[in-house]
Amino acid sequence: MKRLYFDVTKCLACRTCELVCCVGHSVSKDFFQALKEKKVQLPRIKVSLGKGKTMPIACRHCQDPKCVDACIARALTYDFEKKEVVHDKDKCVGCWMCIMVCPYGAIRPDEEARQPVRCDHCVEIGEPQCAKNCPTKAIKYQEDNKK
Amino acid sequence: MKHICIIGNSAAAISAVEAIRERDKDSRITMISDEEYPAYCRCLISYLLAGDISEGKLALRPQDFYTQNKIDLVLGKKVVKLDPKKQRLTLADNEKIEFDIALIATGARADFPDIKGINKEGVSGFRTIKDAKDCLTWAQFAKVASVLGGGLIGLKAAYALRKKGLDVKVIVKSKHVLSQVLDETGAAIVQRHLEHHGIDVLPDQDVAEIIGNGQVKAVKLGSGKVIGSPIVIVGKGVKPNIELVKESDIKTEFGIITDEYLKTNVDGIFAAGDVAQCFDLVRGAAYINALWPNAIEQGKIAGANICGEKKAYAGSLAMNSVEFFGLPIISIGLKKTEPGFEALEFIDKRNSIYKKFIIKENVLKGFIAIGKINNSGVILKLIRDSIDISSIKQDLVSDSFSYARIIDLVGKDEIYTNIPAY
Amino acid sequence: MSQEDLKKDPAHKQLFERAHEEGVDTIWDREAKQEPHCGFGTLGICCKNCNLGPCRIDPFGEGASQGVCGATADTISARNLVRHIAAGTSCHSDHGREVAKTLLMAAKGETKFYKVSDEEKLKNLAAEYKIKTDNQDINTIAKELAQKILAEYGQQEGELVLANRAPDKQKQIWKKFNLMPRGIDREVVEALSRTNIGVDNDYANLMAHGMRVALADGWGGSMIATELTDILFGKPTPKTAKANLSVLKEDQVNIIVHGHVPLLSEMICDAASSEELLALAKEKGASGINLAGICCTANEILVRRGYPVAGDFILQELAILTGAVDLMLVDLQCIMPTLPEVAECFHTKMVSTSSKARFPGMEHVEFREEEALPIAKKIVRMAIENFPNRDKARVCIPKTAANDLVPGFTTEYVFGMLGGRYRPSYRPLNDAIINGRIRGVAGVVGCDNPKMASSQSHVTLVKELIKNDVLVVQTGCSAVSCARAGLLTPEAAFEFAGKGLREVCEAVGCPPVLHLGSCVDNSRILTACCEMVKEGGIGKSLDELPVAGAAPEWMSEKAIAIGWYFVASGLLVLFGMPFPVYGSDNMTKYVFEDVEKITGGKWAFENDPLKMAKVMIEHINSKRKALNLKPMLYESKVEVSA
After folding, report:
1. pTM over 0.95
2. Is the pLDDT of residue C419 over 90?
3. In angstroms, rounded to a whole number, what is the distance separating the alpha carbons of residues C259 and C265?
4. CATH architecture of residue range(s) B3-43+58-109+238-306
5. Catalytic residue among B5, B41, B43, B307, which?
6. Mean pLDDT value across residues C545-565
7. C151-166: average pLDDT
8. Domain extents for chain A?
9. How sure is the predictor about C75, in pLDDT bands with cuts at 50, 70 and 90?
10. N or C: which end of chain B has fewer CB within 10 A?
11. Candidates 2.40.50.630, 3.90.1110.10, 3.40.1190.10, 3.50.50.60; CATH matching B123-234
12. Could you give the angle at which helices C609-626 and C457-467 cross, rounded to 10 degrees?
């Protein structure tokens, strides 16, 4: 199962990952067009400052996901085959229980859409854009047992 | 073949059943529910009433869940007695069911205070799909609704009815709404927001009588004021459904007493969910935090223990998340500062943003977030695991607080490599 | 000053929290939102100069090591740094230009509101410009001087007259390495053209020009601004004054003047003390008009006229949050564009005055020197008319007493201060240094920055320096910070200074920390150093002097320019946070080592103020050793704690 791994020494907080995440989830998938769309996407990954070190934070598709347990509408479920946490936006009621329980703060509220914003490994495109575009290769999308 | 009986069909029951089937595909499982519906999340009924979701969306599991998991489902029947010595359940129609292991997941029911007229038509508890559907029917012809109680259930009902266009009056006995969930400052912000959206909040009031002949017509307050209202929602708390063990040896206090394996004092009988009295991690004492995520976790763990796997339950926490008219509110653990505790606050009254952290000896004990709820789950982890936050105390209130700030406090995280030693 | 540091002062904490209640951001909130800052920018390895980009160098070597044009990290960070120096220099140049133009206007009689106040200084400066002063009318001298100075702005070849003040050795170095500025505007223009794509790609060559630009500031624009301001408004003299937010008054019209150029603030002083406006104030129920300042313009009217300082750069929003400010007027530089948002929470009027500096939300009253006083009066009148709108219930002026300070020291004053009326001279200062009472002189200057992690950096650094018998001179916001800690009084010598320094201060009656004025007045440090060299015994050139400089919390490009002109003049300069250069190994080596081989000056970056002090003291000690000066008379028993 592939996941996103972050090399903290290489993150320079340029936030390219955030930008390409927004573009990757837009309708046009084009950088300039994406900003003009009616619903400008929020980045699913957020670069955050720890104690003197920066690191991106995104959903890591836990195998025992707290958010799935807390979801009252069964909008968040765990796909055992893909080994990913999947969100069904039609079922979601925007109660924010998932945000209350995610121990990584990897889910953020999109107030306008009343939907949680969380990483889906760019399922529409097929490959996580952040890992593809990180200028220092601080983000890697790779199998579990390799680092 | 073992026969496992699960009394209940909601959060704790369903997650227990899944935990059991993960480990044991063979034992016979019977689930008994006093409601007519397959498992649903009762937290959703306010959205049903508001018109935000349709009934079809309420089901907790797909239609074939019970057959796929080889569960005998009994709907619409209430278990009135559990006899642990005879290992036998008695239903309301006197049917008897024998079991080897039982899980009591009967949840809690709306607590109706002793007020004259409380049993009239038009008064509802707001816990079940039936309650919501009743309200939907009544709301078609009503212009005003009153809600007794300023707690979460009451306010969620109030919100839903307001969305339906009714004039809503919330009658609160305490000084402010959400007194079990927020402190005075937070509650004031929420109240202002609710009033701004047309919900009338009447604090420091209680209800003396519900007036009407058969059908509710009005509500009379202790002050003497009368409010014409054909709908009355009772949100005055819940009572755990422990009656079924009244005559047995099973120990109860405010709920069914359980140990850290969610077992009652009688071997082979477990309890989980809103009916179970567990250890509260923040209070450090027995308590019931009747909340959805707690019930799910307890069910999971009870299910594991039922299968013989000794899994300990660390304890429950108060945790609530709700949003009214675009204002999100999250509250975890304690909400009021007690003597000897420290509180860190951030208030922006103009934009209805409030953050409060309650700390005792460098460990977080409580958290309130209104307006900005990002990273609440990180705070929940800090509270749940009693992590020493002295190195990041000053960062808590900041907008830029995140998991990155506590990554050195929570043990090795394999997702991040090359984190420097701090 | 970080958010934590700010909250240690209960009055500031209260105002900070008030901002949140009112729903407005402060500089500390915005800083937190900007964190983490982009590492490429911080390292100086992002380039936006052309459309082949924008480009980034991967400092870890895996990704791109060159921009699209081929520029390396060395080139990119050097180009960026030169542009920063050019921008900082331009601020001071324009400031000097405005003062020079006003002197010309005054000399020509085009404005009756400005005149030559210090005739002696005019004549001395004119002599430097080879202008005849015997039997000449003052305005004739002034006119010629102003014209010659303005010509230096447009000069193409030659040298700047004031650069001549430097000791011979420095001038030789500048000539040898092509660092001598040829004309003020010319150097800035060349800085921009050299840093265009495909022009100067040699980092050392770029930095040499960068130093030339900086020198055009220090010995050009800034020095011109200082000298001509002294000529127009008089030299500063020591006087007692007050600093911190409690200078605002509940019963008076409070006007804050904020920005940099004293042409405006001096007029506001005159207007605010005019009889007609004082009478109007009384009519509106105020007992008087209280004028206070923020930023450099505050320092200008502080050192010349003793007006109180409300705060430095970082506190400008908090000043408004007291609810007591009836009007804040601004000209240019270091003004936060969020001030109108904060002012909207109260009755406070925000007025902009410079056509070069417009801020959405501010009412614009354009200041013109030809009508200086009437315009100033108009603005003061606006403040008075606004006084009745003040909501007294929402006024929250800190109750702590305002700190006393004694500012107003100049190069010229030190002569008199040390030598007395009859034997004005730097001799006593030099002797004190030679004899080991004073270890050396340190300049602690510059801005206030919310990113600074170390607490109380200015105060801690200054205290450590004076404890070790280093005489400290200050300008700008740093001086105001230390004023608020009580360091700028003669009494501070008894409490904080080492024995040797204390003896000197007691004998002379001066503080151990001398406030020289605004940021353009950093040029006074240059002229003072020249006098020290001239007086003799402690070095034959600026780089031999036992001196050092520091800007613990720099924030603006002006600070970069100032730092570089000191380094180019042979001095050690410390910054509390690096400028964007660490992304290039060669540039890092250049600023820490290579540049010393050229000018004798160099850079150091140190975050911890005690460590900063250690570096500066060790540097001063090494200069003392090289000069074979006597050991310190009272060597501190306490190890420099770092």
Report:
1. no
2. no
3. 9
4. 3-Layer(bba) Sandwich (3.50)
5. B43
6. 97
7. 97
8. 1-58+119-147, 61-117
9. very high
10. N
11. 3.50.50.60
12. 30
Coil, strand, or helix at residue A84?
strand
B398–chain C Cβ distance below 8 A for any pair = yes
| Higher per-residue confidence, B62 vs C203 | C203
With pLDDT > 70 as the criterion, what percentage of chain A qualifies? 98
Digit-coded pLDDT (tens) for B251-279: 999 999 999 999 999 999 999 999 999 99
For B176-201, the pLDDT digits (tens) are 999 999 999 999 999 999 999 999 99
Cβ contact C38–A12 (<8 Å): yes
> Cβ(C635)–Cβ(C612) under 8 Å?
no
Average pLDDT on C553-578 reads 97
Q: pLDDT (tens digit, 9 = 90+) per residue, B70-79?
A: 999 999 999 9
Chain centre to alpha carbon of residue C572: 17
Q: How far is residue C269's CA from residue C249's CA, in Å, rounded to a whole number?
A: 17
Q: Which two tokens stand for residue B248?
A: 């047995």
Q: Are B127 and B221 in contact (CB under 8 A)?
A: no
d(CA B341, CA B358): 7
> How is residue C158 written in tokens?
């030659």
Q: Give the one of A11, A13, A135 whose C-beta lies nearest to C37's C-beta.
A: A13
Are B402 and A48 in contact by the 8 Å Cβ rule? The answer is yes
pLDDT at A147: 45
Cβ-based contacts of C28 with chain B (< 8 Å): none
A83-89's contacts with Cβ under 8 Å and 24+ in sequence apart are A83/A1, A84/A1, A84/A120, A84/A121, A85/A59, A85/A61, A85/A118, A86/A120, A87/A115, A87/A116, A87/A118, A87/A120, A89/A115
The shortest CB-CB distance from C23 to any of B348, B398, B399 is to B348
- Minimal C-alpha gap between C333 and chain B (Å): 29
Q: Mark whether B43 is an active-site residue.
A: yes
